Amino acid sequence: MSHAKGSRLEDRLLPLVLLPLVLLILAPIARLLLTAFDSPSGWGFTHFVKVFSAESTQTALWHSLFTAGTGTLISIVLGGLFAFVVALTDLRNKAALVFCLMIPMMIPPQITALAWTQMMGPSSVLLKSVGLAPPLGSPQPLYSDWGISLLLGIQHTSIIFLTLRAGLRMIPAEIVEAARVSGAKGLRVWWQIIVPLSIPSLAAGTTMAFVTALGNFGIPAMLGIPARYSTLPTLIYQRLAGLGPSVLSEVAVLAVIIGLVALLGVVAHKTFLKNKGFGLAGSSSRPLFIALGKWRLMTEITLWAIIVVILLLPLAALAMTSLVPAYGVPLTLDTLSLKGWHEALFRQPVTIRAFANSFILAASAALILMILCLPLAWLMQRRPSQLTKFIDAIVDLPYALPGVVLAIACILTFINLPFTDWSLYGTIWIIFIAYLARFMTVMLRPIQSALSQLDITMEEAAQAVGAKLFKRLRTVILPLVAPSAAAGAILVFLTAFNELTVSALLWSSGTETLGVVIFNLDDSGETVMASAVSMAVVAVVIALMAAIQLLATKLPKGVVPWQN
């Protein structure tokens, strides 16, 4: 009897322990809305009318919609091509292809933009070194709406690829064979059978790609600001950087506008899929597999050529720029120099500090979220209630909303802590709290999925022999969900390590992250040093991904995120 009472007591205390998670998500969003709708004359749309009627807001909104929409279409074309071929055919070296395709998503968007600007334009070290650079004074073609759209599309191709591939793997071969027996052949099978069955996963990926592109700051900032082409994230950054906290009400309205557009995208996705479901009863004895035959070599050449263009050439241009004494000088044996590397990595204390800050923030966020999300996922799965359903409904919000929205919300919430004279604004803690809120769902959802597949009898057996709640979580649940938790931790670390959108608005002297340092170096004209730091970051990311990939055969299934 006392055993049962102890268990019930733990179950009552658990929601109280997890209540801060609700506050972590709800408090900033609520504070943002309060600021946006508050005005000297009372609650209303006064700020909205003033901000939205401004020509700069309408222009930035249109630019955001155009670049995010066009970028998403590019992502669909590239991601869809790779997903269909990799998931459904007998392509060789799939693991290497997937690994290379994942790198652009793991590289910060500002590095992607910097690498591409080094590959094109009249000052390109790569083009100068091979004698193909356009004349000096020629425009940089990427400083345009189409340039921003192109790089947004490449940056988010992996999102479409991962979600669509997961859906394609669920298509049973028997369905296609039945269609062929009925007389369907060639493209008709693909168009009438495979494409309709993949619509739900493609729509999910499309929504994620659009929302992520809408809130992307690095690419529009690196390519748009020099061209005076503003999107909503860059407009918010410029207003806050130029005028400081005095414009918090204005930027709160801008943040709400971009948040509403993102949420409309999510609602449109759910509405579209409402009557588009296809039930596949039971499990397939074998997945769909299509032999390419004589087209296999040509297909492989095409896909690897795309990898060369979107990944290897830009990184080669970035590396070459980091090895010259000044930007625009052709790279030869005589001009080869490590001065930029030495200056950026060893003489600039801000770079070393940024590496330390980014590593500590990313690792700490991954660890704390793993500790928080295990009991939270257990509570949702084993003790469902109105509270857990509410948490489940809102936990995706900080990740679904653009990063600038969360950043502004955190500034408003933590610039003055209630009932104290303390402020977290300008400290590393505000960045850390924002990371916890933003990446919580990245950790929670894999653990939640793993828990839903566990047999509850194992936990009941441990409880029957006297194991209390937290001991059961530590000794029974954690070992079984460890692969999924590890996959979530890897994604949180790699994403947070290179994050810019949130930290660009929250950093101050001493709390710089790597994304901020690269952006600031390029913005101040130190292109060679910016390229050197970028290449160092790329090297770290690829080394970490390669180490995880090499250990994949020795790790439990599900640990490597891009293989799931």
Q: Any overview of this molecule?
A:
With 564 residues, the protein is an all-alpha fold. The protein has a domain at 45-328: MetI-like (MetI-like fold, Orthogonal Bundle). 72% of the residues lie in helices and 0% in strands. The protein contains 25 helices and no strands. The protein has helices at 2-37, 46-52, 55-88, 94-106, 109-119, 125-129, 145-155, 157-168, 173-181, 187-214, 218-224, 232-243, 248-273, 296-321, 339-347, 349-382, 386-394, 397-400, 403-414, 428-452, 456-464, 469-497, 503-506, 514-523, 527-550. The protein is globular.
- Largest sheet features: none
SSE order, one letter for each helix or strand = HHHHHHHHHHHHHHHHHHHHHHHHH
CATH homologous superfamily of the domain at 45-328 - what is it? Answer: MetI-like
- Estimate the mean pLDDT confidence: 81
CATH architecture of the domain at 45-328: Orthogonal Bundle
Q: Would you identify the regions where 5 or more consecutive residues have pLDDT less than 50? A: 1-6, 279-285
Individual helix count: 25
Write a concise keyword list for the protein shown above.
globular, 564 residues, MetI-like fold, mainly alpha
Write a brief structural summary.
The chain is an all-alpha fold and 564 residues long. The protein has helices at 2-37, 46-52, 55-88, 94-106, 109-119, 125-129, 145-155, 157-168, 173-181, 187-214, 218-224, 232-243, 248-273, 296-321, 339-347, 349-382, 386-394, 397-400, 403-414, 428-452, 456-464, 469-497, 503-506, 514-523, 527-550.
